[in-house]
């Protein structure tokens, strides 16, 4: 009997090796190699059948787009591009306990009123899912529930039932019995997802796949999993905080980087139609080290509070504690302050926080962070009715950012009266003048970060 050949596959990047080694030379991760059965090769001397010729068509053509399935949950539909496209595959990832299973059960319950929905759980027993449905108030929903992990059994069942929407919770628990490796390994996750995606495309049903995440926050398993699906959604937020952010990082049928805001309550996740007002609801008067940033998340303008606190440090290396923002950009702004403006911030402990649990990624927050730092250092508060946005360069210049009018209109809608923005370019200034005036805000334009410091006179020490 021929000996079964084995190979060692990295569970982080999918690279394969003939023998075991401690470190993967492809991704430099340690202790990630797992032994798996090698795929059988074609015997020597046997030819490969010639493939059939494929047909090319013109780029121009008329295709009927099938109507989207609207879930009725506005924030979820926004992230998905306006609804669910038949035949699409959506990957949902997030930290344990963040609310992935909860939001998908709510989506299936609302869709079941008009569509045939199936929920297949590989992690939880049927009684556990029923308890969650009862807590959410959806125990009467017409959702077909099952608990299974064998991909062959799942595909056979879906072929007979022919549902419109299917949830697989989660892909790391499924396995294909022809592959000699444990569930959750690279080969099992890749092969299971490939079979499910192929079946969803062929039969035209919407497929939700729940994916575990690693300690770095990325989807566990091969990176190719995110390339195989049509949409990738990430749940963000702290489990101890009531807000949850559903962010779309990939979407073939809608805008990317769109977000939906939810609030975790006893009855499940409730959508927040006006997140700007909610994020600013706990803001207290004129407080030093605090200012409001007018940002853009996807296509939506959003106002959030930026908080900074500087305190003298007794350590040789001052502490930098950042929540919700990029630590490298904070270091850049402090370097600009020290070098271009002569401020001595380097010897202080710096604490920076984006209130509400939101993660801000755009460079337009530079000016708001700089204003919060300057306010904390000087002891002068930013006026409560002022919003700030702009990008800061290494020479200290304040650069323009996109969608200025949308940011200002959102600020005016929430009662703000003043805005500190980058200096506009001369080209097109007259064309934009009317739009900025229509916002009803008093506009202060600055071209260098030194001009920002004029609002915060430093105390003599």
Automatic annotation (TrEMBL):
Name of the molecule in the record: DNA repair protein RadA
Assigned protein family: Belongs to the RecA family. RadA subfamily.
UniProt keyword Plastid present: no
GO terms for MF: ATP binding; ATP-dependent DNA damage sensor activity; ATP-dependent peptidase activity; damaged DNA binding; serine-type endopeptidase activity; zinc ion binding
Record domain RecA family profile: where: 65-213
Residues annotated as binding ATP: 94-101
Species annotation: Candidatus Terasakiella magnetica
Keyword Ligase attached: no
Xref: PROSITE patterns: RECA_2 (PS50162)
Sequence motif: RadA KNRFG motif, positions: 250-254
InterPro entries tied to this protein: AAA+_ATPase, DNA_repair_RadA, Lon_proteolytic, P-loop_NTPase, RecA_ATP-bd, Ribosomal_Su5_D2-typ_SF, Ribsml_uS5_D2-typ_fold_subgr, Rubredoxin_2
Domain text: The middle region has homology to RecA with ATPase motifs including the RadA KNRFG motif, while the C-terminus is homologous to Lon protease.
UniProt keywords, alphabetically: ATP-binding, DNA damage, DNA repair, DNA-binding, Hydrolase, Metal-binding, Nucleotide-binding, Stress response, Zinc, Zinc-finger
Segments for region (Lon-protease-like): 349-461
Taxonomic lineage: Bacteria, Pseudomonadati, Pseudomonadota, Alphaproteobacteria, Rhodospirillales
Biological role stated in the UniProt entry: Plays a role in repairing double-strand DNA breaks, probably involving stabilizing or processing branched DNA or blocked replication forks.
HAMAP family named in the record: RadA_bact
Biological process, per Gene Ontology: proteolysis; recombinational repair
Superkingdom per UniProt: Bacteria
NCBIfam families: sms (TIGR00416)
UniProt GO cellular component terms: cytosol
């Amino acid at each position: 009997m021929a000996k079964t050949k084995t190979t060692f596959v990295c569970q982080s990047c999918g690279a394969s090796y003939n023998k075991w080694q401690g470190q993967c030379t492809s991704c430099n991760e340690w202790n990630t190699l797992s032994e798996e059965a090698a795929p059988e090769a074609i015997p020597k001397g046997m030819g490969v059948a010639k493939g059939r010729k494929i047909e090319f068509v013109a780029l121009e053509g008329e295709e009927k787009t099938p109507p989207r399935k609207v879930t009725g949950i506005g924030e979820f539909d926004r992230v998905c591009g306006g609804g669910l496209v038949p035949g699409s595959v959506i990957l949902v990832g997030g930290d344990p306990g963040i609310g992935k299973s909860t939001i998908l059960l709510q989506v299936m319950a609302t869709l079941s009123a008009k569509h045939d929905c199936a929920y297949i759980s590989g992690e939880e027993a049927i009684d556990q899912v029923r308890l969650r449905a009862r807590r959410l108030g959806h125990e009467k929903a017409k959702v077909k529930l099952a608990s299974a992990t064998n991909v062959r059994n799942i595909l056979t069942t879906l072929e007979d039932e022919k549902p419109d929407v299917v949830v697989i919770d989660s892909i790391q628990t499924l396995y294909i019995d022809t592959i000699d490796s444990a569930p959750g390994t690279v080969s099992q996750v890749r092969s299971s997802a490939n079979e499910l995606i192929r079946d969803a495309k062929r039969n035209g049903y919407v497929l939700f796949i729940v994916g575990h995440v690693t300690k770095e926050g990325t989807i566990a398993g091969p990176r190719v999993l995110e390339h195989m699906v049509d949409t990738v959604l990430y749940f963000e937020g702290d489990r101890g905080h009531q807000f949850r952010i559903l962010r779309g990082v990939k979407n073939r049928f809608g805008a990317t980087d769109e977000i939906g805001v939810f609030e975790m309550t006893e009855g499940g996740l409730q959508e927040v139609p006006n997140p700007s007002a909610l994020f600013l609801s706990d803001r207290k008067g004129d407080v030093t080290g605090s200012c409001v940033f007018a940002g853009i998340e996807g296509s939506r303008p959003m106002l959030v509070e930026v908080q900074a606190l500087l305190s003298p440090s007794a350590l040789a290396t001052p502490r930098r504690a950042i929540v919700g923002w990029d630590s490298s950009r904070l270091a850049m702004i402090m370097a600009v302050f020290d070098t271009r403006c002569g401020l001595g911030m380097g010897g202080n402990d710096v604490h920076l926080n984006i209130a509400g649990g939101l993660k801000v990624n755009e460079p337009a927050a530079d000016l708001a962070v700089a204003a919060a730092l300057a306010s904390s250092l000087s002891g002068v508060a930013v006026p409560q009715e002022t919003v700030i946005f702009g990008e800061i360069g290494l020479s200290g210049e304040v650069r323009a950012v996109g969608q200025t009018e949308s940011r200002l209109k959102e600020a005016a809608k929430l009662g703000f009266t003043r805005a500190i923005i980058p200096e506009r370019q001369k080209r097109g200034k007259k064309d934009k003048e009317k739009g900025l005036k229509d916002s009803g805000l008093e506009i202060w334009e600055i071209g260098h970060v030194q001009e920002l410091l004029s609002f915060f006179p430093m105390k003599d020490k």
